[in-house]
Amino acid sequence: MLYLSEVMIQNPQLNSFEELLETITQRAHESGELHFKIDVKPPYPDTPENWEDRLEGAFVGIHSITRSKY
Is 63 exposed, middle or buried (0-12, 13-18, 19+ CB in 10 A)? Predict the structure, then answer.
């Protein structure tokens, strides 16, 4: 299982929610994990209201969810 908190701890250089999305997508492909646990809220100023949906979309590769409409 891939934990959001672990990804954030292991990548302190991340400065935005968009960078986090890219990292989640990359880690999902590299690790082969089947499950993703969202155990913390990202602290980035650009974190959108639908942040959970966008993170889940990044994990499973659904780009229509990960792309911001605004």
Answer: exposed
Question: What is the rounded radius of gyration, in angstroms, for the C-alpha atoms of the chain?
Answer: 11
Share of the chain above pLDDT 70, in %: 89
**Which amino acid appears at position 10 of this protein?**
Q
Q: Summarize pLDDT for 13-41 with one digit per residue, the tens.
A: 999 999 999 999 999 989 888 999 999 99
| Matching residue, tokens 């492909």 | 29
User: What residue ranges do the domains of the chain occupy?
Assistant: 2-66
Give the DSSP per-residue string, 25-56.
Answer: HHHHHHH--S-EE--S----TT--TTHHHHHH
pTM: 0.85
35: tokens are: 């499950």
